């Protein structure tokens, strides 16, 4: 594998070693309205530089858990600490700053149809006010590595499902997140590309990013010795 492709994600800021867990859940539960709890009594840590798969049957709540981890949902009960802060004490105006430290790949991609592939991937950096001259080569290199080097000027409606998936992954990685959340990131690509993307996630992890991949793909999980978080009927079992 060409390790030069990863220079765009390896310049992580140095954080204090006293923060052992990037994320801590304690007795977390979630329900919508007056309905039954979708997630119940979740207690776990996501250590710094860790790699884990989140799996379980359809409807178990994997995507809901990822939304809690991305701070787009608030728990009904329990404690969530992220980057050594209790999220219940964080103001709404601070949430965007925390989310910048988390990359996420959604199942529905969430690409903007009026922006090219290049512009979609560069969007997080543009939002932060960075000058294009400081990131253009990084965006081009990352797009080339995920197999979209010839598609950078194409609009999303023209892309295949697998190409959209790869563009969404590149967008999540371009800002060098401390945590990467990926919801079925290899669901729309062929096995060789799935392996290549898994290698990208593993390399990112080796460079210091904690990675959580939600997947049903047992063959993908069998390629790596990694922690497995199995969600079933709203409860979580963890196998290290």
Written account of the structure:
28% of the residues lie in helices and 25% in strands. The protein contains 7 helices and 10 strands. It has a single domain (3-239), classed as 3-Layer(aba) Sandwich (Rossmann fold), CATH 3.40.50.300. A 6-stranded mixed sheet has the order 6-7-8-3-9-10, sandwiched between helices. Strands 2-1-4-5 form a 4-stranded antiparallel sheet, covered by helices on one side. Helix 3 runs parallel beside helix 5. The protein is an alpha/beta fold and 240 residues long. It has helices at residues 62-69, 95-99, 117-127, 136-145, 161-173, 191-206, 218-221, and strands at residues 21-31, 37-47, 51-55, 77-82, 85-86, 102-105, 179-183, 210-214, 227-232, 235-239.
Task: State the domain count.
Answer: 1
* Spatial strand order of the main sheet: 6-7-8-3-9-10
Number of helices: 7
CATH superfamily: P-loop containing nucleotide triphosphate hydrolases
What is the typical, i.e. mean, pLDDT? 88
Task: Describe the secondary-structure layout.
Blueprint: E1 21-31, E2 37-47, E3 51-55, H1 62-69, E4 77-82, E5 85-86, H2 95-99, E6 102-105, H3 117-127, H4 136-145, H5 161-173, E7 179-183, H6 191-206, E8 210-214, H7 218-221, E9 227-232, E10 235-239
Parallel strand pairs: 3-8, 3-9, 6-7, 7-8
Antiparallel strand pairs: 1-2, 1-4, 4-5, 9-10
Helix pairs in contact: 3-5
